[in-house]
Amino acid sequence: MISAAGRNIRGVKKHFNYYSVNCGAATTKHRPAGKTDSKITELRGWCPRRGLSALPASSMPFIQLPFCRSRPRSAAWHALALLACLAGCAAPPAVPELATDVPAQWQNAAGAGIAPAAGPWWQAFGDPMLDQLIGQALAGNFGIAEAQARLQAARRLAGAAQAPYRPALAARTRDAIAADASTSYFQAGFDATWELGLFGRAESVQRQADASVAGAAASLQGARVSVAAEVARAYREMRNAQERTRLLEQAVAVQQRRGELLAVRQRARLAAGAELDQAGAALEQARAQLAEPAIAMRQAAQRLAMLLGRAAPDPAWLTPSAASAPDAPAYAALPAAPADMLRTRPDIQLAQARVLDAAGALGVAHADLYPRLGLGGSLTVAVSNIGRRASSASRTVFSFGPLIDIPLFDWGQRRAAEQARDDELEAALLAYRQAVLEGLSEAESALVELDEYRKRREAEQRALQALRKADGQGRELVRLRLASEYDSIDLAARRVQAELALSATTLAQELAFISLHKAVGGAPAWTAAGATQATSSSAGPAQTRDGSDTAADRLPASAAPRS
Q1: Cβ neighbours around 300 below 10 Å, total
Q2: How confident is the model at residue 238 (pLDDT cuts 50, 70, 90)?
Q3: Strands (E), 28-177
Q4: For the whole model, what pTM was predicted?
Q5: According to the UniProt record, where is the region Disordered (predicted)?
Q6: Nearest to residue 239, comparing CAs of 302, 296, 308?
Q7: For residues 286 and 246, what is the distance between their CA atoms, to the nearest angstrom?
């Protein structure tokens, strides 16, 4: 390393013309005016044994630079100009292409179908309460609020990424008195430095800062996608549990009526006692099945409250009157082509940001192979504050010159660091391609699942229609006294079981629909206007049971991420 600042100080050998001198607050006896009071306490220069370091004034084995023998200051400036010209020819490594081979169209979308998106995907359920809950969750979820704060922090740091490569000014003071001193100085001054950030260093640092912002934005979008999908999943599971509870109560009523009819037949000696025992066992089994949907309903409600930033669910959610069973969405508002998913899936965007960050780190490591150039200056005023001439003795020292840091020999450390960053960039590229393949796989698998459950649901609907028709005919025969009620009770039991099967398949189709939109990154991008609209469309801001504001309401306006 070579560090230079131009000023001749008495006590430095004349032949050493390229140096940097630090003059501390030296304690000396008074000298006549016109002679310097400062004692050289530190020399900063180039030593083959000690490398880049500050040396005491007594250490003088400096190597005299040939180009500094005659005109030291102009030689330093010439060296700076030469290195600056070379820096203009050195650019940071380019970001590699992120092109990935993806199919031109969806492979399994023909059966599932693709419908144009008229709004957010969850509106396909046709449930206003679901729309309201998702709006509240997007405004009040603590995970989303955390991601917003991290994005804001990344943006603030990115705005100051170029600060190290702009002129900096610092003030300093020193007032030290030795025990045996007869004279001491109060020292104050200013130091100015400006690193030029050449050889692609400044661009690479900015690239890393931009990657940090992009990664934080992808994490925020991922949190929004996940919260919207999980709210829809929890809500539909809760409603389906309420629907299954209603159907299981019908099954209990059917088994109870079967037992009553068997008791009548047994008294008429038309049925054996074993049949009555079997009917009693079937009744208890039907009652035991009521516990499963009750547990699922309360668990889904608690999970829904957590997603909305609440400590406990709303009691109105658990009332059976609030249950609704709209038709399951059969079509998905997918991106027009798989390549469009690269712009909507958050984990792919996050992988892309990591590639950008790795490219920036490689650029910084590449710049470390070249000299670091800058300008530096200092202004120091020293005033005597004790002794016989405390008020008259003062000194002013000014220095200005180029700062040059040249890596000479480090046993291959910088080169190894550059190669390691290049390997990390390759790893980030591979991770990006893997993320693209995983996204395509999840989306195609969800399309297959959605299509198969759609076909299964249609078949179960046809079977249920046939059973309902047969059950109605049986009840009509009983009303006309052409058949006994016991003969038609089996049809009622089969109808209830068919309705339970259809309810389970409907839930599976709904969850497949939700998983598909989560796989393609389905959620509106965050904007301040969108957040306001989502909050206003709901029943006011989400609050906890004690009425306190949620995380989104507590965020200050300055902390809201900019779109």
Answers
A1: 23
A2: very high
A3: 40-47, 51-55, 168-175
A4: 0.72
A5: 531-563
A6: 296
A7: 12
